[in-house]
Amino acid sequence: MKIRLASIEDGIDSIGFRKISAFIKSIHAETQAAYVPTGNVYSLARWLAQGGSGKFGKDDIHVIAQFLAQGDIVGFSAMTQYSSTVCEIIDQIRHINPNAYIIWGGIHAIVYPEEAIKHVDACCTGEGEFAFKAFLRIFKDGKDYTTAPGFWFRTNTGIVKNANLPLIKQKEMDDLPPLIYQDGEFIYRRGEGFSPINRDDFLKYSALSYNTVWSIGCPNKCIYCSNSKFIENDGEYRRIRHSSPSTIIEEIKRAIRKHPHISTINFHDDGFLALPFKVLEEFAKLYKAEIKVPFTQGGAIPNFVREDKIALLLDAGMNRLRMGIQSGSQDILDFYQRPTKLQHIQNATKIINKFNKYMLPPEYDIILENPIETAEDTRKTLDLLRELPRPFCLNVFALRVIPNTELARAFEARGLEIPPIEQGYNCGYHHTLGNVLVFTLAVWKLPKWLFKNLLSRVYPVEDEQPKYPVLFMTFRTASIVKRGLSHLCHMEFSLITGKIGYILWKTGVIGLWRRFVLKRYLPKE
After folding, report:
1. Of 50, 56, 20, 19, which is closest to residue 36 (Cα–Cα)?
2. Contact present, 49 and 234 (Cβ < 8 Å)
């Protein structure tokens, strides 16, 4: 029996897909995993053009379906913004191989199983490893697999909804295989079809970085995030779970053995800094001794930013940190049900700024395009950004609503509409003065007199007002260039993709630069 698995999303760094694929391959040898990139999330041209989620033509859909339809079981992993593409591929698979058993897992199937199950035979509504193992055993035995926990099944008599298994525990996490990483995966290339993934594919989509997650879970239930739906399903998702430090260190060492050019490790954990100090201390000791490659922390929560933790991680090799701010208005933060007070944000940025010479400028997330914002809300965000300690970079997102979440229900109750999630988070911005100023402040701290004068002319995106497309494009481009230059100054190639980083690594430039040029900026203790 053949199993074929596919990740449909921008790039090849769906960490959840790499995790579940590794597990399924470990229990069923005839498993093939394939990446189907809809685009490159780190493409500079796409960022400048504000491109949304990539789409495939009919010919692409047919070729993708032909490959996957060779499986007796076909599994998909995708977020909601790529769900329409998944449905097109499924329709073609049904036509090519009506006997294929099709399963949908990942975030979309968990958040919106009512929609996903319309198109597949089963969808996984929780953590998939042990649920799939139970399903596969029953399926192979020819018994009633619709009794398998963790799944919804579509049958002739209706939908069977089974309860999820308990969330995975630390000891079980330690026993899981490492994420697949050039372990026989395939990749789809437009106009060429499927072929084995190679080093150049990783350079194209991930540059010199390795992307992973050590800890799972988030204590926050922000209504714009899929985690809010996870917590609705099981409150244990609030609890941060992690494998032992030695397990994640071994995973990273394995990746570096395969790709010695890896020069940055990106941790995409939501609650990395919420881990106990003793756990971080054990991790830092092992990382500093055995990895010796800089790492980034991509999900800091302001409430958990502590000076001792930042110092510890910097000494271990952290060179970049990302933190969610989202808004400078307490009313909007409360609307998002984000348990962060403005004082926590201000205190966290001050702590981070104490270490600014030791790492790249921190990245702060901001959400624009909220239709319920008032002029006062918009202006408070701009006030906060102007007063943030510099230097910093901004990740500016347009608000998009994940269907079947509390945020979706809140907007429906107000009769409000915003662009669909398929449009993507990095496009569709209004060219208002307020949005122009957000990107301006990412580049330049405006003089107080000029800022106050412009601030009085700022209105919410929903209000009728003048538009400034040229200014918007100018300062958005400037913010991207500034961010890229800061990465180049540190020879950090996680966002700058392509072969240039590999050439600089191969010729020894990156190593020499980090050793002799950046050395004077590193902490002495």
Report:
1. 56
2. no
- 524 falls in which pLDDT band (50, 70, 90)? very low
Give how many domains the chain has, as a whole number: 2
Do 211 and 171 have their domain in common? Answer: no
How deeply is 405 buried, as exposed, middle or buried, from its count of CB atoms within 10 A (0-12, 13-18, 19+)?
buried
List pLDDT tens digits, range 448-506. Answer: 999 999 999 999 998 999 999 999 999 999 999 999 999 999 999 998 888 999 999 99
Is residue 26 domain-shared with residue 67, that is, in the same domain? Answer: yes
β-sheet bridge partners, residue 151: 124
- 60: domain CATH number? 3.40.50.2300
- Examine the domain organization and report whether 252 and 341 are in the same domain: yes
The helix/strand/coil state of 326 is strand
CB 197, CB 36: distance < 8 Å: no
The reply to whether 222 falls in a domain is no
Give the pLDDT of residue 525.
Answer: 45
Which H helix or E strand runs over 202? helix 199-206
pTM score, whole prediction: 0.94
Q: Are residues 138 and 280 in the same domain?
A: no
191 occurs within a structural domain = no
pLDDT tens for residues 251-272?
999 999 999 999 999 999 989 9
186 domain-assigned:
no
Cβ 127 vs Cβ 99: under 8 Å:
no
Between 11-25, 32-46, 317-331, 374-388, the lowest mean confidence (pLDDT) is in: 32-46
Residues 6+ apart with CB under 8 A from 164: 125, 126, 127, 131, 149, 150, 233, 234
Judge whether 494 and 296 are in contact, CB under 8 Å.
yes
Are the C-beta atoms of 33 and 25 separated by less than 8 Å? yes
